[in-house]
Amino acid sequence: MTYKEVAEMAGRPRAWRAVGNVLNKNRDPKIPCHRVIRSDAEIGGFNRGQKRKAALLKKERTKLL
Length: 65
What we know:
The chain is built from three helices and no strands. It has 65 residues and is an all-alpha fold. The protein has one domain (3-59). α1 crosses α2 (16-25). The chain is globular and about 30 Å long.
């Protein structure tokens, strides 16, 4: 999913930046925030670093848009 899609599902379609900020503050590894990417198919940020996010996505064999 993209940050925008998460915002839309939350009923706040213009709150994609807020979604990113909330996910960046998450420290619970049970919540898979690394799976949320930017609308332009770039990886985006991650509170444990972009390299870690890319590695997790690769491990899960996720195809970006």
